[in-house]
Amino acid sequence: MINTIKDKIESYFKEQSTISKEKLVNCMVLDFPELKQSTINVYLSRLKKEGLIKNPSRGMYALKEKKTYSPVVDNSLKRLFNKIKKDYPFVEFCIWDTKWLNEFMRHQPFKCYTVLELDKDVTEAVFHALKEQGKQVYIEPDAETFNLYINNSEDVIILKHLISEAPLQEINKITLPTLEKLLVDMTIDTKLYAAQQSEIEFVYASAFENYGVNKNKMKRYAYRRNRENEVENLTNLTLAEI
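The chain above was modelled as a monomer; its predicted structure follows.
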């Protein structure tokens, strides 16, 4: 029941940033008529303890805001992004580094990769252009390619096909994946995210605890990738343990 309430709690604050306890309780009773006042008080106390809501003044509640995920983009990523943008100005693409995921993990991977996700039509052209510059670049590598080549190399660039309507963000004019996209992809692309698979629940929990994660955005993108149930089950399992 608590996970169902967690899913609904944001909707109670849609029209206002704060809400009285009386109004909040009424909203919960409308959705969950079987709940007793004492049980609701227990749930509100738990939601407050878990950091989902706060109590700014007596008898008033508000959603507790979390940080927006905004990874650090180093100069090498900026240069590569700007080069691709200059050569292919009308192509949608994003760039990121797998080392960004280290903050969510207990054990730090030895290898990190630069990832470029592009429209499928230009992937080959970008591949050959980067090869001519002497870059170590691979298109949608399989597990064997990872084992034989990528895991033993430095400064690898991986090209992937960008899923249409993928959730992206722009930071300092650089297009990056959102945290929601990274979490969904991590659940599906087990070769690229091999280092995260053994502690994926911990990664999810770290992400949800430290940043504002839009579950609806995750759900829509997971649906685009035809893995909605798997992502939703993992999300619910993780939130239940936070």
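The CA atoms of residues 81 and 95 lie 7 Å apart.
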